[in-house]
Automatic annotation (TrEMBL):
GO biological process, any: translation
A single MF term (Gene Ontology): structural constituent of ribosome
Name recorded for this polypeptide: S1 motif domain-containing protein
Chain ranges of the Tex protein YqgF-like domain: 1-38
Gene3D superfamilies: Tex N-terminal region-like, Tex RuvX-like domain-like
Xref: InterPro entries: HHH_9, Ribos_protein_bS1-like, RNaseH-like_sf, RuvA_2-like, Tex-like_dom_sf, Tex_YqgF
Pfam families referenced in this protein's UniProt entry, alphabetically: HHH_3, HHH_9, Tex_YqgF
Domain HHH residues, every copy: 149-218
Length: 256
């Protein structure tokens, strides 16, 4: 198994690392970070400045503000696409959730430390300074895996819970049954639930989410296997076709 260590040294000397591992040497902090990247790379990589990972040969020639803005947008897009478990996520990960930012992320962690795990998305409204607008923007990206409402573990926004409940009620079942029974979901005709504010695209997304609630869009990790017997540069011959992992591309060649 190979894990990219770019930026691990930056993290190990950061304030976030000192808060997480105050008693560990920077070398061990970096080692922990690399190990965590194997388990959940997104949750770990958000703890460092994106440009520290290395985003190209000429990144230092780009306007720093423009580069930071673009990289932050990409990270935020990835975080929101995957979703965040509000009860286990770090402050750094929560920061990138749409509608939150550093202060609200810190307030969520503080609330969690003081009151324990959140049991519903509605409980987010009790977090200091997390108002209606922030809740509206963030709720759909925050997951509560073992909450009171099974929809809290999905990407269905609380504003759409009523639609799902109506679908289940029309079939004579509850939401939990609807999530568990594929045959029930196939009986749903989305056209019946179209309104002035909810169209077919939204209903299609909701039904897709009900098929795999809280699904992780990322692919399953696969360990890479190098060609056996190729251990030195002398073993490489012209015309050979070998598997490899490209770690960087520059004007003068690629690092494999």
């Amino acid at each position: 198994v190979m894990v990219n260590e770019s930026g691990a040294s930056v993290y190990s000397a950061s304030e976030a690392a000192r808060e997480e591992f105050p008693d560990l040497d920077v070398v061990y902090r970096g080692a922990v970070s690399i190990g965590r990247r194997l388990m959940d790379p997104l949750a770990e990589l958000v703890k460092i400045d994106p440009k520290s990972i290395g985003v190209g040969q000429y990144q230092h020639d780009v306007n720093p503000l423009a580069l930071k803005r673009s990289l932050d947008d990409v990270v935020m897009s990835c975080v929101n696409a995957v979703g965040v478990d509000v009860n286990t996520a770090s402050q750094q990960l929560l920061t990138y959730v749409s509608g939150l930012g550093p202060q609200l992320a810190k307030n969520i962690v503080t609330y969690r430390d003081e009151h324990g795990a959140l049991s519903s998305r509605e409980e987010l409204k009790k977090v200091s300074r997390l108002g209606p607008k922030a809740f509206e923007q963030a709720a759909g990206f925050l997951r509560i895996r073992t909450g009171d409402n099974p929809l809290d573990a999905s990407a269905v926004h609380p504003e759409s819970y009523g639609i799902v409940e109506t679908m289940a009620r029309d079939l004579g079942f509850d939401v939990t049954d609807l999530l568990k029974n594929d045959m029930l979901r196939k009986k749903i005709d989305p056209n019946r639930y179209v309104t002035d504010s909810v169209g077919i695209p939204t209903l299609t997304d909701i039904l897709a989410e009900l098929d795999k609630p809280g699904r992780d869009p990322r692919k399953q990790f696969e360990s890479f296997k190098f060609q056996e017997g190729i251990e030195k540069i002398e073993h490489v011959q012209p015309g050979m076709s070998l598997p490899g992992v490209v770690t960087n591309v520059t004007a003068f060649g690629a690092f494999v």
